[in-house]
Amino acid sequence: MINVTKTYLPDKKKYKQYIDEIYASGKITNNGPLLKKLESRLAQYLGVKNIVLVANGTVALEIAYRTLGLKGLAITTPFSFVATTSSLVTNGLLPIFADIDPESLNINPKNIEPLITSNTSAIVATHVFGNACEVEKIAKIANKYDLKVVYDGAHAFDVRYKGQSVLNYGDISTLSFHATKLFHTIEGGALIINDDALVEKARYLINFGIKNQEEIPELGTNAKMNEFEAAMGLCVLDDIQEIKQKRKVVYSRYAKELKDLVVFQKQNENILQNYSYFPIVFESEKQLKRVQEALNKEDIFPRRYFYPSLDTLSYIEPKQHMQISRDISKRILCLPIYSELEEKIQNKIIDILKSSL
Ligand SMILES: Cc1ncc(COP(=O)(O)O)c(C=O)c1O
Fold it and tell me: What pLDDT is attached to residue 282?
């Protein structure tokens, strides 16, 4: 069975050595030595100032909102994974959607400004499939109206924008290190925080709000990453260049073979991308379903990602209708892409696509 992605498992011996270290120290969670090591290696590798590791990408978003003290309304994208929206709702924030650009698939900055009211506290945007948002335009709007900017960078690990990590834009960017991601820690996530003064607050928010033995100044939660997860991250990080290089080969093959058949996401011209997804946009949902069925028959399971559009979620009030996002979400499919995808399987996928279009 071929799925849209396959978890990268690093060398077992290397992982076992870390497990031996964990057993020797007896420290399995609570800001342990492997977590600290991973934080410092990741900060250096990504080129970011402050990184706080957490239990997953969903809680990373929640901690970001709480660290920034967001209230009221947040302008956000309807075309993302459900966690971008649900994390707002669970934190008492009202998602107000701004429709996307049909080519980049990211929030369209032009649609943000007309939605801003005195109750708006933030813009929450996603670098969809690792494609950088129009970060400068978004920063300009945020400065004009004194709004915070949170980027859901779950897909943007190692994406460079104008020579530096795209995660350095916005007040906070979040990452997901779920097993399906380019870089993973089994389950995990991170916050990239620009303002040094906020790092300490985020650290105690992930530890029940406890600042020290006497003070619990905030309503916190438990969002800590454990040592077994950090160990996995250290192993995967050793191999990340090779993983990326292999994905680039798969990505380039799809790009070459499918360019006249389907529409691709338009990449921001200032980025170096990470090859983590290969989304294709069909003419119609009917065409998508035909291709999906043909692939499924051969035990190949691409993913309808992101589907459905988040403005259709039943728990969203007030009701909103994002025409472009609804339309794209019905016509987009992410093809299998991972470092170990064999050329012969990929050729089969390409052949099925060609013959069913
Ligand atoms: C865009 C986006 N945001 C947030 C998340 C949530 O991350 P996690 O699964 O680590 O909670 C994901 C994960 O799949 C995602 O793709």
Answer: 97
Of all residues in the chain, the percent with pLDDT exceeding 70 is 100
Give the separation between CA 31 and CA 25, rounded to whole angstroms. Answer: 13
Q: Is 56 in the pocket of ligand 1 (CB under 6 A)?
A: yes
| In-domain check, residue 1 | no
- 189 and 245 assigned to the same domain: no
DSSP secondary structure letter of residue 207: B
- 58 ligand 1 Cβ < 6 A: yes
Do 204 and 337 lie in a common domain?
A: no
Number of domain units in the chain? 2
Residue span of the structural domain in which 346 resides: 240-356
- What local confidence, expressed as pLDDT, does residue 49 receive? 96
**pTM of the model as a whole:** 0.98
Q: What's the CATH number where 278 sits?
A: 3.90.1150.10
CB-ligand 1 contact for 182 (6 Å cutoff)? no
| Tens-place pLDDT, residues 314-353 | 999 999 999 999 999 999 999 999 999 999 999 999 999 9
Q: What pLDDT does residue 342 have?
A: 96
